[in-house]
Amino acid sequence: MSLAEIAFVLLALIAVATASAALLVRELVHTILWIAIFFVDLSAIYFLLNAPFLGVLQLGVYAGAVTILLLFGIMTTRKRIFSREAATGIGPVAFGLAVVTFIFLVAALGEFPQGEVPITSYDPAALSTNLFNVNGPWLLLLGLIMLAAVGGAIYLVREGRE
Amino acid sequence: MTALSEIGFVALSASLLAVGVFGILTRRNFILLLIAIEIAMNAAILNFVYFAAFAHGPGGLTGQAIAVVVIGFAATEVAVGLGIVLALNRLKGTINVARATELKL
């Protein structure tokens, strides 16, 4: 087992554990802390996959912006930040559906490329060429949707709306 | 990339998706719902990044490019979701989605 494989197994275990912990702890602020660890852990996995640009993006957008945004959401919607959530039990139906999803995905494993040689390293310049040339329309669409989302969010939270 | 196994990545991605689906189905707090959706989306992004390594040639980095776009979409979705959280809190005094029944007949 190579060093990268050991690192991947450890990071994968941490990812699943922190994601589960984020949804199972009682205090919402603890949820945010767990999810921050989860995002940083995923960014480490991207670095392991030789995708440094995505790793940095994950750190900046998810671990930075989304986490703080969620924290603001908690701060503004409750009087005391540390207040326990009413427990919502683990429904057997939901748990069963999650297990079925997992089984379906693992069953599809035979469809994946076997014995293919993965690319060993990426040139970030090639990624930017791909992003702005081949996938330029997607980036444009993303910009337009973000603009619409900003307008919608401002409309939702503005004062004096009944 | 070193020879990280497909099975490991697919298992990780599937586990994260299962955790996300579980959260979406069981939690009633809007912020926890948003977090569960983020976990499920990250599972998808992880798949895109991993399998991008198998596509050689000029289109080989499309998986990573799609991942960049999806990360942007996810951030947008959280912003709008928090707008809904604030509006719901102002309207109802709670962010329990079980109480948000305005659209019910």
Quick take:
By secondary structure, chain A is mostly helical. Chain A folds into 2 domains: about 1-85, NADH-ubiquinone/plastoquinone oxidoreductase chain 6, subunit NuoJ (Four Helix Bundle (Hemerythrin (Met), subunit A)), CATH 1.20.120.1200; about 125-160. In chain A, about 75% of the residues lie in helices and about 0% in strands.
Question: SSE layout and pairings?
Answer:
The complex is a heterodimer of chains A (162) and B (105).
Chain A: H1 3-24, H2 28-48, H3 52-77, H4 92-107, H5 124-134, H6 136-157
Chain B: H1 6-26, H2 30-52, H3 62-92
Question: Care to describe what's here?
Answer:
The complex is a heterodimer of chains A (162) and B (105). By secondary structure, chain A is mostly helical. Chain A has helices at residues 3-24, 28-48, 52-77, 92-107, 124-134, 136-157. Chain A folds into two domains: 1-84, Four Helix Bundle (Hemerythrin (Met), subunit A); 123-162. Helices cover 73% and strands 0% of the residues of chain A. In chain A, helix 1 runs antiparallel to helix 2 (28-48) and helix 2 packs antiparallel against helix 3. Chain B has 105 residues and is mainly α. Chain B has one domain (7-97): Helix Hairpins, CATH 1.10.287.3510. Chain B is 71% helix and 0% strand. The longest helix of chain B has 31 residues, at 62-92.
